[in-house]
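Example (one chain per record):
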Amino acid sequence: MAKKRKPKETADNIRGVADADEARLWISERGIEDIECVVPDQAGVARGKMMPTEKFFSGPVMTMPTSIFTQTISGEYPPEDDEFKHDPTDGDLLFRPDYSTLAVVPWETDPTAQIIHDAYRKDGRALETAPRQVLRRIVDLYHAKGWSPVVAPEIEFYLVKPNTDPDYQLEPPIGRSGRPEIARQSYSIAAINEFDDLFDDIYDFSEAQGLEIDTLIHEEGAAQMEINLRHGDPIALADQVFMFKRTIREAALKHDMYATFMAKPMSNEPGSAMHIHQSVLDTKTGTNIFTNKDDSPSRKFYNFIAGLQKFLPHVMCILAPYVNSYRRLARYTAAPINVHWGYDNRTVGLRVPTSSPEARRIENRVPSSDANPYLAIAASLACGYLGMIDNLNPEEPIEGSARDLPFGLPRGLLDAVALFEDCDDLVEIFGRSFAATYRAIKQAEFETFMGVISPWEREYLLMNV
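Predicted structure:
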């Protein structure tokens, strides 16, 4: 079962303003002293600066070095090659606030606000490699066709005991009963109630920021949870996922736990996904283009599915961005291993949920929860867009289990990167600069991983080879 709670106020009363003048009033009414100026980097990590309110409004535009968008998850920088080059001066980018994202930071002790910024070059051009701009680029392709994409993400995560030594395996936390979970507790209300105080804080923090949780459920794994968000504009929903991740981590720390969005944090537990529900509206009429006037599925609906089937393997390095991500994609688990589709079928990569004709949509079950939400949503929408533009035809839907069928997704990060780089259609849509930068970052992260000797190697190779 799912746990719901009605927001005390609507998001419009809490989150976002139109411009700097409204922001001044909003901040004054709440006695805000400091503002976190945040930017999502390629990993979806919040970069930025904290500054006093007076400086935010009176100072020049915020600047940070170009290199924040070429940094790996381990804090390193990829080597240059024929296609990827660092800015030789590591000069500053300009960052402008998006006032629609203004919200309080409810876990701070002093009155603090946060606002997401967009990156621009000094000549005024939006930075083409910034994840938020990448998503905007894909959404603009839809708008140029008179379409408005709609998404609804579902994010899974684990609660774990604090772990300060990476050589030790993660363990489920202790709930109010004083005992850790040892059995699968899918949809268990009792299992959610083990962490009632934590979830109350998550709801309170979310309401304070104008973030709208649709449902909270317990997933298959020990202390594995899922939060479903209400459907809406792709950029707004990516912003919400970005802020939700921060919110859930902060709430967990308050209760002496970690919240992790690793795709496969524990070897004997299921992986964590970020499922993305997608539909497309006619911008003028507001009707769902996946449905004909007689309520039957439209040609565009099948085109969209076909685009996902053809191109999802080529964007796997975005949907599953780390070496660990591919550990989730195991046969006979809840994670898909191919891009077959079916009606209300959770064994395939592409599920069509039971719904009214007006709400007809496609659930992409491939992305993992460690993916950058801006890039993952952009990648999924790009695949569907190409399917509609190219008038592609899908395979027949799968009626039984797809778990015995062959793998249809790359099994490792390097293979996935090669598939992305070799797909001219996707490189053109994402931009060659982004494709080269992202590829270089992922290759560098893989090389860093290869420098680590795992416990498996010490266990089975040390004395046997």
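Caption: The radius of gyration is 22 Å.
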